Amino acid sequence: MIANIKRYAMRRINLNPMAQQTAVEWLEEQLNKWSDGRFYLPPHLFEKAKEMEKEQIIAAFDVAYQDEDRIGREYYEETYKKQ
Q1: How do residues 27-49 score in pLDDT, each as one tens digit?
Q2: Distance between CA 68 and CA 58 in Å, rounded?
Q3: Residue 44 contacts by C-beta under 8 Å, 6 or more apart in sequence?
């Protein structure tokens, strides 16, 4: 069963050789592009946010890999929704 899930997941992953941009990377790029130097966040904050996002992506993939019946929206609501 795990092998079937892995094969399914690999087919669903975009195997584009170009790396995809994460949301945090996009935000950093936009802030640098549009702020004209008026807005500044220390680089270590972006690095911390990128590391946190990486761990969240890994955790989400691991959950999907282990529980094929659980959907992404359910995982998000249980994990990140503020009460």
Answers
A1: 998 888 888 878 788 889 999 99
A2: 16
A3: none
